[in-house]
Q: What sequence folds into this?
């Protein structure tokens, strides 16, 4: 697609329910990031996928959070047994890994985010 | 671990004037990338400017320029001729390309600076 696509754009759920947030990265981008942003705050890193490597899960706040990336493309972030403190905007980004010994990703391109409200 | 610090939570500037947003970072690496992202009220994260650490010349993009001081680990953003559309939250971000997939390539963000341009 032309850009990073996230769905749904807004999600309201009851406390204790599970939710799935979807991210469709830019075609050909090998790296995919999930961040969480509380109202008026900065970006909290959650998880990072790079090609076929094991993901960097160091930012996941609890074992209620998990993410998958199927076929190196679409990613799903799952939050189980949602709590009110999970309410935030969840941002996904993708970038292209240039490879090489000191390879690096190009700049990250962001989706518009999913605003999750837990009531 | 790398950290990024933005010490100005909020700033204001009159239209057509110049404003500088500060950013400092901490790393022991020599090769890395720095970015400034803009997030307007629409929530869409937009790349403003990018700097590669091995380049001594400061990056510029139209009205946006940076003052990159590698020894001081400082990366400030200067916005000239400020416009109402520049009103947004600005994030400084760091990426270490790394020598291994496990260590590198994760984008680390500062807490952000809210910039308000007044008419």
A:
């Amino acid at each position: 697609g032309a850009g990073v696509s996230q769905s749904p754009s807004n999600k309201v759920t009851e406390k204790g329910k599970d939710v799935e947030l979807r991210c469709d990265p830019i075609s050909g981008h090998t790296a995919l990031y999930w961040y969480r942003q509380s109202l008026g705050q900065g970006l909290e890193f959650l998880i990072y996928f790079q090609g076929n490597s094991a993901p960097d899960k160091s930012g996941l706040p609890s074992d209620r959070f998990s993410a998958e990336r199927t076929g190196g493309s679409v990613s799903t972030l799952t939050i189980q047994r949602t709590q009110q403190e999970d309410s935030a905007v969840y941002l996904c980004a993708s970038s292209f890994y240039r490879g090489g010994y000191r390879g690096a990703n190009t700049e990250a391109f962001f989706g518009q985010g999913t605003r999750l409200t837990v009531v | 671990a790398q950290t990024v610090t933005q010490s100005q939570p909020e700033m204001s500037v009159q239209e057509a004037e110049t404003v500088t947003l500060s950013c400092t970072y901490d790393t022991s690496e020599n090769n890395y990338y720095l970015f400034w992202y803009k997030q307007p009220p629409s929530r869409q994260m937009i790349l403003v400017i990018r700097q590669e650490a091995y380049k001594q010349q400061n990056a510029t993009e139209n009205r946006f320029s940076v003052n990159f001081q590698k020894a001081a680990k400082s990366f400030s953003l200067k916005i000239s001729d400020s416009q109402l559309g520049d009103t947004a939250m600005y994030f400084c971000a760091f990426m270490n390309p790394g020598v291994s997939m496990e260590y590198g390539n994760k984008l680390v963000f500062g807490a952000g600076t809210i910039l308000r341009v007044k008419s």
